[in-house]
From TrEMBL:
Record flagged with keyword Lipoprotein: no
Domain ABC transmembrane type-2 positions: 24-252
Example GO biological process: response to antibiotic
CC terms in the record's Gene Ontology section: ATP-binding cassette (ABC) transporter complex
Keywords tagged on the record: Antibiotic resistance, Cell membrane, Membrane, Transmembrane, Transmembrane helix, Transport
Protein name (record): Transport permease protein
GO MF annotations in UniProt: ABC-type transporter activity
Compartments in which it is found: Cell membrane; Membrane
Pfam families membership: ABC2_membrane (PF01061)
Chain ranges passing through the membrane: 24-45, 65-84, 105-132, 138-159, 171-191, 227-249
Chief localisation class: membrane
Highest taxon, organism lineage: Bacteria
Organism: Nonomuraea fuscirosea
Family: Belongs to the ABC-2 integral membrane protein family.
């Protein structure tokens, strides 16, 4: 386990250096949820006046949703990094080294978790300027950040799985776009469940789990059993996703 942790840290540091060297990529990743937040708050501000709307303002309602969607959109492209390593022969060189195989996957996932944390903190700070407040305090903010990280790890792991299976940038990009938009817009990120069509399966959507757990934890009187239930579901899905990515990597290893 010590070797896996050390190798994961080394590979994560390598990935983070690549990200930080691309200043425009870093700025775009952090700014994307902020831009959506401002535009949607202006576009849908009147929704907060509807009877039964569960928040005092639309930005207050939207903040947890944008944190979840921003993390999902950012981590969905983690597989492209794996594909670039594959195309450049980096992956094959790593296979010839003493690096632990699991660390090749975890070294790709850890940077996505760190980016999700920074992205969430930036969004939470910026939302204060729109009048958003957090009655749940530090505990609620910690729970929200943890839920967002679990979602980012889940999506990044599935993106790596897809990359190792299809081994094509074109297919990877097409499938990712096909999947992430429905998960985002059919969740409770942008609209409360009571105002959505009854046939939409929001209860089965991991994005909704993150958003609902975050909103509940940030409220003045959190329903903690509901929060722990959603965090438990997210942890289970995240674990399965990471194991699936590890299995996909082992299949790739056997094929070369």
């Amino acid at each position: 386990m010590k070797a896996v942790a050390e190798h994961s840290l080394l590979l994560s540091t390598r990935q983070l250096r690549v990200f930080t060297s691309r200043s425009w990529y870093l700025v775009a990743t952090l700014a994307q949820p902020l831009i959506w937040m401002v535009f949607l708050s202006g576009l849908l501000s009147g929704v907060a006046r509807l009877p039964g709307f569960p928040a005092a303002s639309y930005p207050q309602f939207l903040t947890p949703g944008m944190a979840a969607v921003g993390a999902m959109f950012g981590s969905a492209w983690a597989g492209l990094t794996m594909l670039m390593d594959l195309e450049r022969g980096v992956l094959d060189r790593l296979l010839m080294s003493p690096v632990r195989r699991v660390a090749i996957i975890t070294g790709n996932l850890i940077p996505q978790a760190l980016i999700a944390v920074v992205q969430t903190l930036v969004l939470l700070a910026a939302a204060l300027l729109l009048g958003v407040r957090y009655p749940g305090g530090p505990v609620g903010l910690t729970v929200m950040t943890a839920a967002v990280v679990l979602l980012a790890l889940t999506v990044a792991a599935l993106s790596n799985t897809l990359a190792l299976r299809v081994r094509s940038r074109e297919v990877q990009i097409t499938v990712i776009q096909l999947l992430i938009f429905p998960f985002a817009f059919l969740s409770t990120a942008f609209m409360p469940e009571g105002l959505m069509a009854s046939w939409l399966p929001t209860a089965l959507n991991p994005v909704s789990w993150v958003v609902d757990a975050s909103r509940t934890a940030l409220s003045a009187q959190p329903d903690w059993p509901a929060v722990w239930l959603r965090l438990g579901l997210l942890t289970a899905v995240c674990t399965v996703s990471v194991l699936t990515a590890v299995n996909a990597f082992r299949s790739y290893q056997r094929s070369v």
